[in-house]
Amino acid sequence: MKFTEEHEWLREEDGLIVVGITEHASEQLGDIVFVDLPDVGDEVVKDDEVVVIESVKAASDILAPIDGEIMEVNDALTDTPSKVNEDAIGEGWFVKIKASDPSQMDDYMDEAAYKTFIA
Amino acid sequence: MSDTLRVTPLHDLHAELGGKMVPFAGYEMPVQYPLGVMKEHLHTRTKAGLFDVSHMGQVIVRHADGYAGAAKAMEAIVPVNLLGLGEKRQRYGFFTNDAGGILDDLMIAHRGDEMFVVVNAACKEADIAHMQKHMTGCEIEEITDRALIALQGPSAEAALEPFAPGCDIMKFMDIGIFNSDFGELWISRSGYTGEDGYEISVHATHAEALTRRLLEHDDVEPIGLGARDSLRLEAGLCLYGNDIDTTTSPVEAGLTWAIQKARRAGGDRAGGFPGEARILDELANGTARLRIGLRPEGRAPMRDGTELYAGAEGGAPIGHITSGAFGPTIEAPMSMGYVEAAYTRDGTQLYGEVRGKRQPVRVASMPFTPNTFKR
After folding, report:
1. Which of its termini does chain B have fewer beta carbons within 10 Å around, N or C?
2. B69 pLDDT higher than 50
3. Measured between CB atoms, which of A30, A58, A78 is closest to B36?
4. Do A56 and B300 touch (CB under 8 A)?
5. A78 touches chain B (CB under 8 A)
6. What class does CATH assign to B288-375?
7. Does residue A36 contact residue A73 with C-beta atoms inside 8 Å?
8. Which CATH number is correct for B2-53+145-234, 3.30.1360.120, 3.40.50.2000, 3.30.870.10, 3.20.10.10?
């Protein structure tokens, strides 16, 4: 699993890159009440705004961490956005991306580096 | 700015309780506790929440003629019937300016020989200067050695009664002075959540001890400013600076219920307050825009600043949102804002522009949750 400085995590699963936000980020945001997901089939470029999440405090943009195509979105978040707070790195995932350049993953932090980053 | 932040007498307790502190109106205040905004909100609606609101301004007004003298002087700057307020009763009001806008909103209480006033934290210096300038013959004393605690929700009465026997028989907007183990408590049965509850002024030296005892009650949890805001919005209550300010008149804001007959045209003491020309005219003839409630479709909140349109495409904005959040009790987003008078009917379909897209939203009556005041 890799981590971005924007507090997103990326995990390779069945050839796709699963993207979510870290527990640290979900705690900072507070209770999440709405997740606006992209459409399956959307082409995204790294740093595009791909997801918008609304917490009790504010709206936050989630940037695409990697170039590729949106293959799957976590529709369960539409009705239960609180999954992001309850299980940020599991059931709280946002999208699965078919990466056009998987080597972009190499730029990101591993778990130890991320822990130092947020310390 | 952090070097100038003030703290309340409960500051150390907030830290101990895990409060996440943020700057607010010049004070360091808890925005939430470990429970989180959503659960804090729901807890207040179902049990009871304790809020530190010591940042608010507490002011005593004295006059040689007692309360009546203070009330008469206050009526010159507040368009409310204060001479008609009963002893041990409290009333909502606002300071207006010459343009008929609102300088601040406040609570005014009749304490027999004097008047007690609670004003917003962000406005308190200006409010006190305003009172000192205009309330001739009055002594205006800001009370700086007392904390203010709000205890709100269905369990508030049971939690407070052991420390203030007799507070259970108070009704909504009653006030009283109670002698207690924590010194003199100045209690009003009121609040800012739409729930039954109390606001308790306690001397700073006893504030933490009283708060700890109240928190020992199984049903009482500490609640931060985050839930305070979503609770007041569900209750349809205005936040000064967002929903009302110097550019909004009380009539536009839908606060005409607070301007009693005595101060309106034909009343015993009609007018005689700043902005009287505009406010009396608007009371008679209506306004071009009005504050309304809004329920966005879907789950996305429409926050303050969102422009409102009559149609899904084109046209100029017909209003804007002044407060918006997700309502934990109604499990849906909610907003309030101002729209042109033609669009104020309940159920009117409008569109709010969120992130460049127009999203449907309907005009809805407030409060969004029924209030539970003890009448």
Report:
1. N
2. yes
3. A30
4. no
5. yes
6. mainly beta
7. no
8. 3.30.1360.120
